[in-house]
């Protein structure tokens, strides 16, 4: 295969073969979720945003391969260091001579802006062969230090255990993330040795090799919040908090009002229109789109739902996957909607379950109504026509249809279709015994007095 002629193209190698033992989980570390999806997909999305032509993921677990499809993968079955891991992608990039970003699957918070800055530095007039991303952690502790010259070019990466007291005073640390000239990368890696205490091949050694070849090495400084690294569940929670803060900021910048931003949880793909108002303690799962001028009151849980303009949801409502709410729909407190369409102006305001159903335009479903959609073996559909009124505490036993404009009396169990504009009532006849209540109380009081 011939080499690519486009040296301005960008590829990425993502290291995702680590065992992640500190997560104490059967799930590979990079598949633990952030904002509702595996963390590595956050990183792949950032690469897509900057227009990277390809991304090769270095893996040791087939579940990671499945998760990143259709991106190509390379196997690292022996954990022999970061340099060895990057080298596994050589065949996948044998035809590529643009710039190569080297990233870590457990550092998913690097922003597109930072990636673009690294690429821009690599393509600057002095064309450094290697660009290293540095950051300033609160506690430098065991991080390698980036030693620069007077011109801010990178001289060396010194590991903390090998650093002098003066070098330990350097606040700029090595993140491990790099952007390297793809024409040089694998030649440099092929010369990295493992003559060290761990017997591993270190990616950082390519800096010294590049300098020995007369190549410049540069540094870009990133925000520490982008580079926290996720090694355990505590780190995962920190990363979730950082990502949620970004999503909330984006939502508010996009025209949504969040009454108590810190209590709202978004998914990676939540879509909000303009003038959306979101109360405290609202949770968005994946697959939610919200139109303009929608009000979502406190303590709602919404997943896999489409909400159109002017709808009002909650408080304490649950919208499950397949819920589709048209314009000006009302879904009130302690209402659950699942795989159901509520057409324009429909109302389900109190204490109801509507699943596998259609609620027609301007229909009104009373408090305590349920669609009995499951018979123990399969799901069945309930169709409520336009303008229909379903009285409180009604059970609609699917499959069943209530016609346009029909009224179902409160307390009914409806197991047969109701024609349009008809009244359907199934409650038992009311019986009255005059004076019975007073006699009952007298008898009970007498029993109590004898006791």
Explain briefly what this protein structure is:
This protein is of the alpha/beta class.
Report on this structure:
A hairpin with a 5-residue loop joins β8 and β9. This protein folds into 2 domains: 10-227, Spore Coat Polysaccharide Biosynthesis Protein SpsA, Chain A (Alpha-Beta Complex), CATH 3.90.550; 250-424, UDP N-Acetylglucosamine Acyltransferase, domain 1 (3 Solenoid), CATH 2.160.10.10. The strands form 6 sheets. Strands 13, 15, 16, 18, 19, 21, 22, 24, 26, 29 and 32 form an 11-stranded parallel β-sheet that branches. It has a 10-stranded parallel β-sheet with strand order 12-14-17-20-23-25-27-30-33-35, covered by helices on one side. Mean pLDDT is 95; it is low at 1-5. Helix content is 20%, strand content 27%. The chain is of the alpha/beta class. The chain has 9 helices and 35 strands.
């Amino acid at each position: 295969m011939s080499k690519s002629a486009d040296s301005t193209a960008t590829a990425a190698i993502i290291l995702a073969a680590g065992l992640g033992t500190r997560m104490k989980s059967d799930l590979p570390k990079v598949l633990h979720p952030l904002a509702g999806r595996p963390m590595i997909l956050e990183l792949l999305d950032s690469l897509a945003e900057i227009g990277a032509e390809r991304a090769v993921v270095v893996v040791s677990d087939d579940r990671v391969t499945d998760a990143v499809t259709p991106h190509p993968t390379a196997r690292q079955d022996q954990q022999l260091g970061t340099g060895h891991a990057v080298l596994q992608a050589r065949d996948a990039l044998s035809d590529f001579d643009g710039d190569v970003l080297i990233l870590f699957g457990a550092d998913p918070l690097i922003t597109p802006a930072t990636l673009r800055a690294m690429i821009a530095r690599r393509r600057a007039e002095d064309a450094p062969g290697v660009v290293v991303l540095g950051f300033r952690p609160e506690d430098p502790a065991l991080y390698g230090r980036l030693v620069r010259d007077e011109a801010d070019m990178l001289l060396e990466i010194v590991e903390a255990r090998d650093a002098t007291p003066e070098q330990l005073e350097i606040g700029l640390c090595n993140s491990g993330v790099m952007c390297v000239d793809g024409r040089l990368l694998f030649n440099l890696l092929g010369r990295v040795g493992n003559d060290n205490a761990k017997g591993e091949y270190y990616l950082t050694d390519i800096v010294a090799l590049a300098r020995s070849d007369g190549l410049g090495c540069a540094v870009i400084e990133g925000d520490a919040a982008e580079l926290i690294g996720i090694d355990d569940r505590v780190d995962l929670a920190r990363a979730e908090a950082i990502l949620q803060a970004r999503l909330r900021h984006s939502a508010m910048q996009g025209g949504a009002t969040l009454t108590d931003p810190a209590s709202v949880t978004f998914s990676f793909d939540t879509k909000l229109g303009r003038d959306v108002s979101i109360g405290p303690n609202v949770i968005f799962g994946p697959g939610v789109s919200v139109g303009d001028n929608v009000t979502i009151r406190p303590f709602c849980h919404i997943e896999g739902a489409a909400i159109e303009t002017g709808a009002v949801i909650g408080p304490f409502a649950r919208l499950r996957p397949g819920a589709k709410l048209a314009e000006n729909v009302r879904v009130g407190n302690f209402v659950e909607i699942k795989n159901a369409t509520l057409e324009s102006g429909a109302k389900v305001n109190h204490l109801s379950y509507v699943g596998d159903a259609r609620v027609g335009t301007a229909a009104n479903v009373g408090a305590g109504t349920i669609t009995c959609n499951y018979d123990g073996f399969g799901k069945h559909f309930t169709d409520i026509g336009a303008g229909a009124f379903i009285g409180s505490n009604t059970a609609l036993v699917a499959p069943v249809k209530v016609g346009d404009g029909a009224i179902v009396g409160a307390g009914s169990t409806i197991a047969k279709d109701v024609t349009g504009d008809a009244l359907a009532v199934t409650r038992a006849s009311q019986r009255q015994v005059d004076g019975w209540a007073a006699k009952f109380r007298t008898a009970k009081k007498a029993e109590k007095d004898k006791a």
